[in-house]
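User: Round two. Same drill as before: sequence, then structure, for each protein.

Assistant: Same drill it is. First protein:
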Amino acid sequence: PLSITTPESSTAMLPLHLACRYGASPSVVDLILMHHPSAIDVKDESGKTARDYAKSPTYPQQSGTNQVEVVAVLNRAEGYQTIADMIHRQAGAEMEQRLELLEAKHTK
């Protein structure tokens, strides 16, 4: 969804930044990453990534969320990005094959 990739206007924070800053559960962080894995590398207006917020000593302990688990979820983000890249490459290759078949039919 577009809302996952759209930064909050005044701080340039993505939903992933906000989730990590305010102590969202690991499952919420994981869900955001599954849909937008490249968000892991995005820096907000202050130059911080979501991982920076999750590793912060001021991480909201009162939320009841395990900081270590959230960081572990963030560390898996590279795997999600790898899978997304593979899917895009495969889809691109399939589209090229279909175009070649169409071109071959039209040139006959």
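Second protein:
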Amino acid sequence: ARVDFKGPFLKYQYPFKKRRIGCIAGGTGFTPILQCVHEIIETPGDTTRIDFIFASASPQDILMKDYLDGLAAKTFKF
């Protein structure tokens, strides 16, 4: 398998034109990723899959955990 990484120095705009994207965030750093997630989930016909890794000290420290779990339950994309 091949893994590509790009730094935050590039500007990405939706649509990403990828079959699958990977997102890594911690703390409030997930807010820009959440915007991408919403675009993908809410756009009819977009089949992009999202792999999201979120870091926190404990499950209780995950911001908006219930909301994120609800998104994951709502769609196969996330």
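The chain has a mean pLDDT of 83.

User: Perfect.
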